[in-house]
Amino acid sequence: MTAKDQQRYCMRPMTVDDLDTVALWFEHLADLCLFDRSSPVPVNRTALEGNWKDSLASTGPQRGYWFALDDASGDIVGIAGIENINYTNGDGILAIYLSDQARGKGLAAKASCLLLDLAFDQLRLNRITSYYREDNDVTAKLTNTIGFSKEGLMRKAWFVGGKYFDIVVVGILGDEWAESRKKLAVELGGSTQLQFGRPPWSARVWPEALT
To answer: I need a surface site. Which of 11, 32, 121, 129 has the fewest CB within 10 A?
Structure first.
């Protein structure tokens, strides 16, 4: 595969202005309820900014780092972040949302890899956790591919559509990621390439085998 055949994306720090697009995505109730159990109904742009202000506008050691995923045209097509960071215990929670047009390209896996590199190489965290609703087969497959281990089940803890669902808890440790990324750096191919930062400042690219 040549460079011209690749679909190129970049991951950059998310800004408050990105919420204009995110608010439109979150009007899709089924998607919203699959992404965030604390948001049972869509809210307007102003309310959404209030919910995200600590992650996007705080100073000093942040409890969350969120990034926008842009396509080659510079349009935002997804968001990805490490949330609820606890520096004392060295852990955080990984979360990703992709718009419809960005799904099925392997972008979520590559964004996860970049976030795990950031978590363990830059933030000095020791573990990353993720949660998903029991019927979310896409996230189950994604976290398994990246190297997360199933750690537990929160029974009937996610309410949506008049029903309670179990929450699956998965996690990965820093040393486990170091082993997993060796394999993924070679195997995580495909036509999609994701770089961290806008050119020419990109320091990391996934898949590394295509750089």
So the answer is: 121
Q: Give the CA angle between residues 1, 203, 182 to the nearest 5°.
A: 65
Angle at 207 between CA 202 and CA 210, to 5 degrees: 90
What is d(CA 129, CA 123) in angstroms, rounded to the nearest whole number? Answer: 15
**Residue spans per domain, the chain:** 3-125+189-210
Predicted TM-score of the model (pTM): 0.90
Q: What is 3-125+189-210's CATH superfamily?
A: Gcn5-related N-acetyltransferase (GNAT) (3.40.630.30)
pLDDT tens digits for range 158-175: 999 999 999 999 999 999
